[in-house]
Amino acid sequence: PVMRLFRYAGLEVFLTACLLPALVCFGVLARIAAAQAPAPPIAATADAHAALIARMRQAAHVYTQGLEDFLCTKITTRSGDRSGAGSRWKPLDVQESEVSYVNHQETETLLKVNGQSANLKIKQGYFIPGGEFGASLLQIFASSVHAQFTFDHQESAGSQQLCVFRYRVPLETSRWGMSDGTQSVGFAHHGMVYADCDSGAVMRFHMESEPAEMHRLMFHFPVGERLDVSYRPTLIAGKEFLLPFSAEAIAWYDSDWTRAEMQFQNYRKFQSDSRIIIPDHQEIVPDPSSPQPQP
User: Fold this and answer.
1) Measured between alpha carbons, how far is 66 from 122 in angstroms, rounded to an integer?
2) Alpha carbon of 36 to those of 22, 33, 156, 160, 197: distances in Å?
Protein backbone atom coordinates (compact mmCIF):
# COMPACT_ATOMS: atom_id res chain seq x y z
CA PRO A 1 0.00 0.00 0.00
CA VAL A 2 2.81 2.41 0.78
CA MET A 3 4.54 1.72 -2.53
CA ARG A 4 1.26 2.04 -4.43
CA LEU A 5 0.53 5.39 -2.80
CA PHE A 6 4.05 6.50 -3.62
CA ARG A 7 3.62 5.51 -7.28
CA TYR A 8 0.28 7.30 -7.48
CA ALA A 9 1.76 10.34 -5.81
CA GLY A 10 4.74 10.25 -8.15
CA LEU A 11 2.44 10.00 -11.13
CA GLU A 12 0.48 12.99 -9.87
CA VAL A 13 3.69 14.95 -9.38
CA PHE A 14 4.88 13.94 -12.84
CA LEU A 15 1.61 15.03 -14.46
CA THR A 16 1.61 18.32 -12.57
CA ALA A 17 5.30 19.14 -13.00
CA CYS A 18 5.94 17.88 -16.53
CA LEU A 19 2.98 16.96 -18.68
CA LEU A 20 0.66 19.85 -17.87
CA PRO A 21 3.24 22.58 -18.66
CA ALA A 22 4.16 20.69 -21.82
CA LEU A 23 0.53 20.62 -22.90
CA VAL A 24 0.14 24.32 -22.13
CA CYS A 25 3.34 25.08 -24.07
CA PHE A 26 2.09 22.99 -26.99
CA GLY A 27 -1.14 24.98 -27.02
CA VAL A 28 0.76 28.28 -27.04
CA LEU A 29 3.01 27.10 -29.87
CA ALA A 30 -0.02 25.95 -31.84
CA ARG A 31 -1.62 29.37 -31.47
CA ILE A 32 1.64 31.11 -32.53
CA ALA A 33 1.96 28.83 -35.56
CA ALA A 34 -1.63 29.55 -36.52
CA ALA A 35 -1.02 33.30 -36.21
CA GLN A 36 2.13 33.12 -38.36
CA ALA A 37 0.66 30.85 -41.02
CA PRO A 38 0.26 32.55 -44.41
CA ALA A 39 -3.16 33.73 -45.42
CA PRO A 40 -5.16 31.11 -47.33
CA PRO A 41 -5.08 31.44 -51.09
CA ILE A 42 -7.78 33.53 -52.68
CA ALA A 43 -10.71 31.51 -53.92
CA ALA A 44 -9.71 29.86 -57.19
CA THR A 45 -12.80 31.04 -59.04
CA ALA A 46 -13.21 33.18 -62.11
CA ASP A 47 -15.30 35.68 -60.13
CA ALA A 48 -12.65 36.09 -57.41
CA HIS A 49 -9.90 36.60 -59.98
CA ALA A 50 -12.02 39.05 -61.98
CA ALA A 51 -12.70 41.05 -58.80
CA LEU A 52 -8.98 41.19 -58.01
CA ILE A 53 -8.14 42.27 -61.56
CA ALA A 54 -10.69 45.07 -61.20
CA ARG A 55 -8.98 46.16 -57.96
CA MET A 56 -5.61 46.08 -59.73
CA ARG A 57 -6.92 48.32 -62.53
CA GLN A 58 -8.45 50.70 -60.01
CA ALA A 59 -5.26 50.81 -57.94
CA ALA A 60 -3.18 51.53 -61.07
CA HIS A 61 -5.60 54.31 -62.06
CA VAL A 62 -5.49 55.85 -58.57
CA TYR A 63 -1.70 55.56 -58.59
CA THR A 64 -1.20 57.34 -61.93
CA GLN A 65 -3.86 60.01 -61.29
CA GLY A 66 -3.24 60.56 -57.59
CA LEU A 67 0.55 60.63 -57.56
CA GLU A 68 1.65 64.00 -56.21
CA ASP A 69 4.44 66.14 -57.65
CA PHE A 70 7.88 65.01 -56.49
CA LEU A 71 11.58 64.92 -57.27
CA CYS A 72 13.99 62.01 -56.91
CA THR A 73 17.48 60.93 -57.84
CA LYS A 74 17.90 58.14 -60.38
CA ILE A 75 21.15 56.18 -60.73
CA THR A 76 21.40 54.30 -64.03
CA THR A 77 24.19 51.81 -64.71
CA ARG A 78 24.35 50.92 -68.41
CA SER A 79 26.12 47.98 -70.00
CA GLY A 80 26.40 47.05 -73.65
CA ASP A 81 26.82 43.88 -75.68
CA ARG A 82 27.38 43.93 -79.44
CA SER A 83 27.71 40.18 -79.82
CA GLY A 84 23.99 39.80 -80.43
CA ALA A 85 23.71 37.31 -77.57
CA GLY A 86 22.93 39.52 -74.58
CA SER A 87 25.45 37.65 -72.45
CA ARG A 88 28.78 39.49 -72.93
CA TRP A 89 28.15 42.74 -71.11
CA LYS A 90 30.73 45.54 -70.96
CA PRO A 91 30.31 48.71 -68.85
CA LEU A 92 29.11 51.81 -70.72
CA ASP A 93 28.48 54.51 -68.13
CA VAL A 94 26.89 55.37 -64.79
CA GLN A 95 24.43 58.25 -64.99
CA GLU A 96 23.01 60.29 -62.13
CA SER A 97 19.81 62.14 -63.02
CA GLU A 98 17.18 64.21 -61.30
CA VAL A 99 13.67 63.00 -62.13
CA SER A 100 10.80 65.43 -61.70
CA TYR A 101 7.21 64.22 -61.79
CA VAL A 102 5.03 67.33 -62.08
CA ASN A 103 1.42 67.50 -63.31
CA HIS A 104 1.69 63.80 -64.24
CA GLN A 105 4.61 64.52 -66.58
CA GLU A 106 7.97 62.84 -66.07
CA THR A 107 11.10 64.87 -66.86
CA GLU A 108 14.68 63.68 -66.44
CA THR A 109 17.72 65.93 -66.16
CA LEU A 110 21.21 64.46 -66.39
CA LEU A 111 23.48 65.64 -63.55
CA LYS A 112 26.58 63.44 -63.69
CA VAL A 113 28.18 60.84 -65.94
CA ASN A 114 30.68 58.49 -64.31
CA GLY A 115 30.78 60.78 -61.29
CA GLN A 116 31.71 63.88 -63.31
CA SER A 117 29.44 66.89 -63.83
CA ALA A 118 31.72 68.96 -66.10
CA ASN A 119 31.32 66.95 -69.30
CA LEU A 120 27.93 65.27 -69.62
CA LYS A 121 28.41 63.24 -72.78
CA ILE A 122 26.88 59.76 -72.67
CA LYS A 123 27.89 56.94 -74.94
CA GLN A 124 25.66 57.03 -78.02
CA GLY A 125 24.32 54.19 -80.11
CA TYR A 126 22.72 52.40 -77.15
CA PHE A 127 19.25 52.27 -75.65
CA ILE A 128 18.18 55.13 -73.33
CA PRO A 129 15.51 54.03 -70.81
CA GLY A 130 12.64 56.12 -69.40
CA GLY A 131 9.01 56.12 -68.28
CA GLU A 132 9.41 53.84 -65.25
CA PHE A 133 6.76 55.74 -63.26
CA GLY A 134 3.18 56.03 -64.55
CA ALA A 135 3.72 55.51 -68.28
CA SER A 136 4.85 51.88 -68.16
CA LEU A 137 2.10 50.86 -65.73
CA LEU A 138 -0.57 52.28 -68.04
CA GLN A 139 0.80 50.21 -70.91
CA ILE A 140 -0.61 47.23 -68.99
CA PHE A 141 -3.62 48.64 -67.15
CA ALA A 142 -5.09 51.33 -69.41
CA SER A 143 -8.54 50.13 -70.44
CA SER A 144 -7.77 50.94 -74.08
CA VAL A 145 -4.99 48.31 -74.36
CA HIS A 146 -7.38 45.43 -73.52
CA ALA A 147 -4.84 43.36 -71.60
CA GLN A 148 -5.87 39.78 -70.91
CA PHE A 149 -5.01 38.46 -67.43
CA THR A 150 -4.65 34.87 -66.19
CA PHE A 151 -4.09 34.00 -62.53
CA ASP A 152 -0.79 32.16 -62.05
CA HIS A 153 -0.09 31.70 -58.33
CA GLN A 154 0.00 33.29 -54.88
CA GLU A 155 3.21 33.88 -52.92
CA SER A 156 4.41 35.48 -49.68
CA ALA A 157 6.58 38.60 -49.51
CA GLY A 158 7.26 39.07 -45.80
CA SER A 159 3.89 39.64 -44.17
CA GLN A 160 2.30 40.52 -47.52
CA GLN A 161 0.45 38.11 -49.78
CA LEU A 162 1.02 38.70 -53.49
CA CYS A 163 -1.24 37.43 -56.23
CA VAL A 164 0.65 36.88 -59.46
CA PHE A 165 -1.02 37.18 -62.85
CA ARG A 166 0.21 36.57 -66.36
CA TYR A 167 -0.93 39.13 -68.91
CA ARG A 168 -0.79 39.81 -72.66
CA VAL A 169 -1.48 42.91 -74.75
CA PRO A 170 -1.99 42.36 -78.51
CA LEU A 171 -0.20 44.50 -81.09
CA GLU A 172 -3.47 46.03 -82.30
CA THR A 173 -4.11 47.79 -78.98
CA SER A 174 -0.57 48.13 -77.60
CA ARG A 175 0.86 51.54 -76.70
CA TRP A 176 4.41 50.23 -76.16
CA GLY A 177 7.13 50.41 -78.78
CA MET A 178 10.55 51.67 -79.81
CA SER A 179 11.86 54.54 -81.94
CA ASP A 180 15.36 55.12 -83.31
CA GLY A 181 14.69 58.64 -84.57
CA THR A 182 14.00 57.55 -88.14
CA GLN A 183 11.35 54.87 -87.66
CA SER A 184 9.09 53.47 -84.96
CA VAL A 185 7.69 50.04 -84.26
CA GLY A 186 4.97 48.90 -81.87
CA PHE A 187 5.26 45.89 -79.58
CA ALA A 188 2.77 43.25 -78.63
CA HIS A 189 3.86 42.28 -75.14
CA HIS A 190 3.30 39.91 -72.26
CA GLY A 191 4.61 39.44 -68.74
CA MET A 192 3.80 39.11 -65.04
CA VAL A 193 2.12 41.40 -62.52
CA TYR A 194 2.64 40.96 -58.74
CA ALA A 195 -0.15 42.65 -56.78
CA ASP A 196 -1.25 42.82 -53.14
CA CYS A 197 -4.03 40.22 -52.84
CA ASP A 198 -6.18 42.56 -50.73
CA SER A 199 -5.74 46.05 -52.16
CA GLY A 200 -4.70 45.16 -55.71
CA ALA A 201 -1.73 47.56 -55.48
CA VAL A 202 0.98 46.54 -57.96
CA MET A 203 4.27 45.78 -56.19
CA ARG A 204 6.18 44.60 -59.25
CA PHE A 205 5.65 44.04 -62.95
CA HIS A 206 7.63 42.45 -65.77
CA MET A 207 7.04 43.33 -69.43
CA GLU A 208 8.54 41.57 -72.43
CA SER A 209 8.01 42.48 -76.06
CA GLU A 210 7.07 39.87 -78.63
CA PRO A 211 9.12 39.51 -81.85
CA ALA A 212 9.34 42.74 -83.85
CA GLU A 213 11.54 44.12 -86.62
CA MET A 214 12.91 47.37 -88.00
CA HIS A 215 14.61 47.79 -91.34
CA ARG A 216 17.73 49.46 -92.71
CA LEU A 217 17.92 49.74 -96.51
CA MET A 218 16.95 46.25 -97.71
CA PHE A 219 17.67 44.49 -94.43
CA HIS A 220 15.32 43.68 -91.55
CA PHE A 221 16.63 43.14 -88.03
CA PRO A 222 15.10 42.24 -84.65
CA VAL A 223 14.29 44.78 -81.95
CA GLY A 224 12.72 44.38 -78.52
CA GLU A 225 12.77 45.20 -74.84
CA ARG A 226 12.26 43.70 -71.39
CA LEU A 227 11.37 45.86 -68.40
CA ASP A 228 11.11 44.88 -64.74
CA VAL A 229 10.02 47.46 -62.12
CA SER A 230 9.71 46.94 -58.34
CA TYR A 231 7.81 49.29 -56.02
CA ARG A 232 8.19 50.08 -52.33
CA PRO A 233 6.22 52.26 -49.87
CA THR A 234 8.05 55.60 -49.64
CA LEU A 235 7.50 58.60 -47.37
CA ILE A 236 7.37 62.05 -48.99
CA ALA A 237 6.62 65.00 -46.70
CA GLY A 238 5.07 62.67 -44.13
CA LYS A 239 2.76 60.86 -46.60
CA GLU A 240 3.29 57.33 -47.86
CA PHE A 241 3.30 56.59 -51.59
CA LEU A 242 4.03 53.43 -53.55
CA LEU A 243 6.96 54.41 -55.78
CA PRO A 244 9.59 52.69 -57.94
CA PHE A 245 12.54 51.42 -55.92
CA SER A 246 14.48 49.62 -58.65
CA ALA A 247 14.12 48.74 -62.32
CA GLU A 248 15.98 46.92 -65.06
CA ALA A 249 15.53 47.45 -68.79
CA ILE A 250 17.16 45.25 -71.43
CA ALA A 251 16.75 46.27 -75.08
CA TRP A 252 18.10 44.92 -78.33
CA TYR A 253 18.47 46.70 -81.68
CA ASP A 254 19.83 44.34 -84.29
CA SER A 255 22.95 42.85 -82.63
CA ASP A 256 23.36 45.78 -80.19
CA TRP A 257 22.08 45.00 -76.68
CA THR A 258 21.82 47.46 -73.80
CA ARG A 259 21.13 46.76 -70.13
CA ALA A 260 20.13 49.62 -67.83
CA GLU A 261 19.97 48.92 -64.08
CA MET A 262 18.19 51.72 -62.21
CA GLN A 263 17.91 52.73 -58.56
CA PHE A 264 15.56 55.47 -57.34
CA GLN A 265 16.42 57.33 -54.14
CA ASN A 266 16.11 60.61 -52.24
CA TYR A 267 12.43 61.15 -52.98
CA ARG A 268 11.19 64.58 -51.94
CA LYS A 269 8.14 66.74 -52.51
CA PHE A 270 8.15 69.19 -55.41
CA GLN A 271 7.20 72.63 -54.05
CA SER A 272 6.13 75.64 -56.07
CA ASP A 273 9.54 77.17 -55.38
CA SER A 274 11.50 73.98 -56.13
CA ARG A 275 14.32 74.39 -58.61
CA ILE A 276 14.92 71.74 -61.24
CA ILE A 277 18.68 71.56 -61.64
CA ILE A 278 20.03 72.06 -65.16
CA PRO A 279 23.83 71.81 -65.05
CA ASP A 280 26.10 74.02 -67.11
CA HIS A 281 27.77 72.44 -70.14
CA GLN A 282 25.11 69.75 -70.44
CA GLU A 283 25.43 68.19 -73.85
CA ILE A 284 23.24 65.28 -74.88
CA VAL A 285 23.28 65.04 -78.64
CA PRO A 286 20.47 62.84 -79.97
CA ASP A 287 21.77 60.03 -82.11
CA PRO A 288 19.39 58.36 -84.61
CA SER A 289 21.05 55.04 -83.83
CA SER A 290 20.18 55.29 -80.11
CA PRO A 291 16.83 53.49 -79.75
CA GLN A 292 14.43 54.95 -77.22
CA PRO A 293 11.20 53.63 -75.72
CA GLN A 294 7.97 55.03 -77.07
CA PRO A 295 5.49 56.34 -74.49
Assistant:
1) 34
2) 21, 5, 12, 12, 17
Q: Contact at 8 Å (CB) between 56 and 62?
A: no
Share of the chain above pLDDT 90, in %: 51
> What's the average model confidence in pLDDT over 256-260?
94
- Please choose, from the candidates 241, 229, 233, 293, the residue with its C-alpha nearest in 3D space to the C-alpha of residue 270: 241
Residues 206 and 227: their CA atoms lie apart, in Å, by 6
The answer to whether the beta carbons of residues 224 and 212 sit under 8 Å apart is yes
What is residue 282's three-state secondary structure? strand
Q: Is the dihedral of CA 127, 130, 135, 136 positive or negative?
A: positive
- Residue 103 has what pLDDT? 82
CB 295 within 8 A of CB 135: yes
Do residues 259 and 89 lie in contact, with contact meaning Cβ atoms separated by under 8 Å?
yes
H, E, C per residue of 225-259: EEEEEEEEEEEECCEEEEEEEEEEEEEEECCEEEE
Q: CA of 97: how far to CAs of 15, 110, 112, 199, 282, in Å?
A: 70, 4, 7, 32, 12
